[in-house]
């Protein structure tokens, strides 16, 4: 397995534009996380402009966190355009398994296009694979270790890389699996950490052809930066600030040294 530093260096040298259709809760934090890691964020969801925006972006991140029908229309238009132009799509199925509306919209989005990367927590990935699990709003009620089979199924069904976050991040691409053991539990106590993981996966996918390499690099970057931030702050408010600082200071060498990736 190639070390993740090279994939990060590609992001930092290319500074890709990442088009996010994401939720109201995390827009600001996600944009800051992308800027800090060395990418360029834009948030745009109006049906009137999503096609033009995706045309100038390196990747499209679709996050269903605060859904409404007009947004779904914009997501579908953007996804179709991304397919037409060969741009990678990252899908974050926020709250899959919490309500039937979310499940229905996810079915429609996955009929519209196959994402390069599906990034969610364990409950969301299990729900997406058809299990009856009830996600606790947007929070997971399952462990990433229990989602390996579901991730495999989804990866085969949609031809996507599936990245499941948790104590260990599980990343599946067809029959290939990688595990990333970085991160700290405090990351679950700040909203937008998973959404940022998906947005950063977008930056990595924009700058790296191989979606498996991109998803692993993004997960390792998130986890390593969480560990660096935790050395400085052990409470959510200050941790969030130090996490952004860590994203801004991470480089290929440090990432290679601290990433714990198993295959
Ligand atoms: N128990 C944990 N220990 C260490 N890192 C974790 C833990 N749970 C989640 N993370 C990390 O936090 C980030 C967000 O993951 P998660 O909380 O699962 O996403 P979401 O916010 O979508 O539910 C990921 O980078 C993940 O690796
Ligand atoms: C709390 C909340 N409610 C709707 S979207 C959202 C943010 C979810 O963010 P994350 O999946 O990164 O925890
Ligand atoms: Mg999430």
From TrEMBL:
InterPro entries: Hyethyz_kinase (IPR000417), Ribokinase-like (IPR029056). GO terms for molecular function: ATP binding; hydroxyethylthiazole kinase activity; magnesium ion binding. Its cofactor is Mg(2+). It catalyses: 5-(2-hydroxyethyl)-4-methylthiazole + ATP = 4-methyl-5-(2-phosphooxyethyl)-thiazole + ADP + H(+). Its EC number is 2.7.1.50. Pfam families: HK (PF02110). The chain crosses the membrane at residues 21-47, 53-72. Pathway: Cofactor biosynthesis; thiamine diphosphate biosynthesis; 4-methyl-5-(2-phosphoethyl)-thiazole from 5-(2-hydroxyethyl)-4-methylthiazole: step 1/1. Substrate binds at residues 43, 192. Keywords: ATP-binding, Kinase, Magnesium, Membrane, Metal-binding, Nucleotide-binding, Thiamine biosynthesis, Transferase, Transmembrane, Transmembrane helix. It is an enzyme of class 2 (transferase). CDD domains: THZ_kinase. GO terms for biological process: thiamine biosynthetic process; thiamine diphosphate biosynthetic process. ATP binds at residues 119, 165. Belongs to the Thz kinase family. Catalyzes the phosphorylation of the hydroxyl group of 4-methyl-5-beta-hydroxyethylthiazole (THZ). This is Hydroxyethylthiazole kinase. It comes from Dyadobacter luteus.
């Amino acid at each position: 397995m190639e070390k993740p530093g090279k994939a990060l260096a590609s992001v930092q040298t290319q500074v890709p534009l990442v088009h996010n259709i994401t939720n109201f809760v995390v827009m600001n934090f996600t944009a800051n996380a992308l800027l800090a890691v060395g990418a360029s964020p834009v948030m745009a969801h109006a049906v009137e402009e999503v096609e033009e925006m995706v045309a100038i972006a390196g990747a499209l991140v679709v996050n269903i966190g605060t859904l409404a029908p007009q947004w779904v229309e914009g997501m579908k238009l953007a996804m179709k355009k991304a397919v037409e132009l060969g741009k990678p799509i990252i899908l974050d199925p926020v709250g899959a398994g919490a309500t039937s509306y979310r499940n229905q919209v996810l079915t429609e989005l996955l009929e519209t296009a196959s994402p390069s990367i599906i990034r969610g927590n364990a409950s969301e990935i299990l729900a997406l694979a058809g299990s009856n699990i009830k996600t606790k709003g947007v929070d997971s009620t399952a462990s990433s270790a229990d989602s390996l089979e579901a991730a495999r199924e989804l990866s085969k069904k949609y031809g996507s890389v599936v990245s499941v976050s948790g104590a260990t991040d599980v990343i599946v691409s067809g029959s290939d699996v990688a595990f990333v053991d970085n991160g700290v539990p405090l990351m679950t106590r700040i909203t937008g950490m998973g959404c940022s993981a998906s947005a950063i996966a977008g930056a990595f996918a924009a700058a790296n052809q191989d979606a498996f390499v991109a998803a692993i690099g993004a997960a390792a970057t998130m986890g390593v930066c969480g560990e660096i931030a935790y050395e400085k702050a052990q409470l959510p408010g200050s941790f969030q600030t130090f996490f952004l600082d860590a994203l801004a200071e991470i480089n290929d060498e440090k990432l290679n040294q601290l990433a714990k990736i198993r295959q």
